[in-house]
Amino acid sequence: MRTFGPLPLLIALGLPPVLESQQSAGSELWRLAAVTMPMPPSLTTGAAAAFWTPVQEGDHGQIGLDLLQTPEAVGATGLIGAVRVPFRHLGTFGVVYARMGLGDLVRTTDSPDPEGASIPFYTQSGGFTWSDAYGSTGVGATLTYHDTRFDGTRAERWSIDVGATQQIGDRARVAIATRGLSRIGSDPAQDVNLGAEYRVWRGILWGTTTGRVLARYGVTFGHPGGVDHEFGAGLDIGTPVSLDVVLTREATYGNSAWRGAAGLRVRVGRYRVSFARDGGISDLGSTFRVGLEANLR
Question: Residue 81 pLDDT > 50, yes or no?
């Protein structure tokens, strides 16, 4: 009988030993990528962030790319790319492409030696996204095609995701966003994210450099298991530098666990560079994300 050599590793990462569907397998790969996010997904901003929430700010064009790398023991890599272009009176339209794959999966028999070709395991998606702002309210939607392959089986599906943000004065913001939404109720392949952000301090850090401190909270549900809770904070140093941290209590599939992540964003002119990492998965090492974004003028 043939078995998949890395199955114990997948279990260690928190993946269900018997996946309900290929779509849920693909969603688990994206949850590996999501551990690098240092804030609730519904509050993220930027071109590539349109993958996590369709609501994005700005009336200018953007192009962005995020590269993801999990620990060597896991062997997953990925990318998220997006281009957004504004159209007067119609909002901002864009395209988003994302791919995440797990390498070095091989078949074995009753020995640890690999047998035959490697096992393909990847998920990719491409979608059309739109967002617009009406006063202090932002709305958006994304139509996405999903393609997931695991060994000899393949699954394809479409989803329509929506999002909204509401600015409350100059101190607070609340947001909601869905990802992979295909039905009302619990589904392993989808997430619903709620987030809130509140400015707790603003002032002078040193000299003429201004700063502000933000407190954040988010919840994620819509998938089997319990609700995930995210507690975070952000520090903006002037205009160009932002530091973000988050501590998340995950309850997916009934297994509660805590994880943390931190990120740095630096803006230079019309470019923004970001770097983020999580605190490590099951003592296997950290997952990293590096991003580059440019405003199109």
Answer: yes
